[in-house]
Design goal:
Elements (H helix, E strand, L loop, with lengths): L17 E4 L4 H10 L15 H20 L8 E10 L5 E4 L6 E6 L20 E4 L19 E4 L5 E6 L3 E4 L8 E10 H6 L3
Antiparallel strand pairs: 1-7, 2-9, 3-8, 4-7, 4-9, 5-6, 5-8
Helix pairs in contact: 1-2
């Protein structure tokens, strides 16, 4: 005879975000910042033969391996990496969106954005910050303070050398950059190769 089910509270739909500070980032970051102004970096960054790009790829490979291990996906599937090196200037931002077709998305921060060069900003402006939004629309409408579902967003100030990964469906945005010095980072996509082969499009 089976045991009766016990009383429990079951978590539903956890959304994981990976965050890894890559060691020895200073020299590669300097090289990547210089590469941001080069025409050869206009396409997929990881198609370029460059020492700093190879260094970043190694860090991402390690982080994706840790992701599959955490998710207990073994053996890890074959995947393909895409990346776009971008430098946001004064007044630039990235609107709210996700990465359709990607298993994972993320950002690598080449530099820490300079402080805003404007006074009298709104208290909720959070210039040059990254915001991640829970994909469950309206799930926290009646949540109470102290409930882990109370805040549907996570907003953070980027740190140079920080690599972040999250599920491709997760909505995210980059708040407006309000400094003259560019905010340099790499936008990432991790696509599963078997899914690409099965997709007729």
């Amino acid at each position: 005879m089976s045991e009766p089910a016990g009383d429990e509270i079951i978590p539903l739909w956890p959304t994981w975000v990976g965050q890894l500070q890559l060691p020895g980032a200073e020299a590669p970051n300097h090289a990547l910042a210089g590469l941001a102004a080069s025409p050869e970096a206009a396409g997929n960054l990881f198609d370029i033969e460059h020492g700093a790009v190879a260094w970043l790829r190694e860090g991402i490979v390690a982080a994706v391996g840790q992701w599959f291990e955490k998710m207990q996906v073994q053996p890890a599937p074959r995947w393909r990496l895409g990346g776009r090196l971008e430098a946001l200037g004064f007044g630039h931002y990235r609107e709210l969106g996700n990465e359709p077709g990607a298993y994972l998305a993320g950002l690598y921060f080449v530099n820490a954005p300079a402080p805003p060069e404007l006074d009298h900003l709104r208290s909720d402006c959070a210039p040059s910050h990254l915001s991640l939004l829970d994909p469950r629309v309206g799930f926290n409408a009646l949540a109470l303070e102290g409930d882990p579902n109370f805040n549907e967003t996570r907003t953070l100030a980027p740190v140079a050398g920080m690599l972040m990964l999250w599920p491709g469906y997760l909505r995210h945005c980059s708040r407006v950059h309000l400094a003259r010095a560019p905010w340099v980072r790499v936008a990432l996509r991790v696509e599963l190769e078997n899914r690409l082969a099965a997709d007729p499009r």
